[in-house]
Prior knowledge:
The protein is of the alpha/beta class. The protein has one domain (about 5-30, about 40-295): Purple Acid Phosphatase, chain A, domain 2 (4-Layer Sandwich). It has eight helices and eleven strands. The protein has helices at about 5-10, 30, 65-75, 95-110, 125-130, 135-140, 170-180, 210-215, and strands at about 40-45, 85, 120, 145-150, 150-155, 190, 225, 235-240, 240-245, 275-285, 290-295. The strands form two sheets. A six-stranded mixed sheet has the order 4-5-6-7-9-8, with no helix packed on it. A five-stranded mixed sheet has the order 3-2-1-10-11, with no helix packed on it.
Amino acid sequence: MSTRRRDFMKLVGLGGVAFASTLRGGVSEAFADGKRGEEEEFYFVQLSDTHWGFDGPMVNPDASGTLVKAVATVNALEERPDFVVFTGDLTHTTDDEGVRRERMAEFRDIVSRLEVKTVHFMPGEHDAALDRGDTYQRFFGPTHYAFDHKGLHFVVLDNVSDPGATVGEAQLDWLKNDIARVPEQRAVVVLTHRPLFDLYPQWDWSTRDGAAVLDVLASRHKVTVFYGHIHQEHHFRTGAIAHHAAKSLVFPLPAPGSVPKKVPVPWDPAHPYAGLGFREVDAEQAGEFEIREHGVVAG
């Protein structure tokens, strides 16, 4: 991260580095000696679980404000990210199809103000499970796809459109074919909503056929997964695959299994926006990443 961008984060009060890692488990030479290979390195911003339409004053009295603040913060960065990705639950679930469309339209309008060239979307179960992604696709396009960026291969997986929390055989076949076309030495980044491993199935924090997905990905030696859903920072490894969960922009959830029932952490007026935030990820072609977690700006 450039000095100017780091100084900006300090000035606006976005918390410091909460976690830093690389796929190989150490700091790469490029980060260690402060040199940046301009053609290899870039950074992107991950935002997750905005739940546009959520209304819960005891949980977040500014539920309609945090997304707007995040957009403004990204736009204020002197160095633009190469892209922004939203890892699901763009909107809060509703049985009313008309309200669902309204929320997606409102969300799309707000994030259209992002001054970045590219924004990638994927659904969460709140966006897609009730109609298997039909409304979501009208607004945001396919629920799963792949793209390449500066030497990295990105795969967006849909483990939410099926109400049973599965990826499904058709998408698994698509993944196998997609991965087979990627050169062996190219690092793979997976973006999805639910965790692909069994973090805490009792709270729906898993993907029922996630093991099959991980079996496909295990054929590669450079894979990193970024996901959402659990509304908190979490880092885990399954074999050589690193998994990183992002915070929510609307309310935090308790640590897995720490309380009898999964409910949002109540709003703390003494520490507004505690537990909320987004992350930026510095990336290299070699498949190494440095992750910085940031809080939501108050006021």
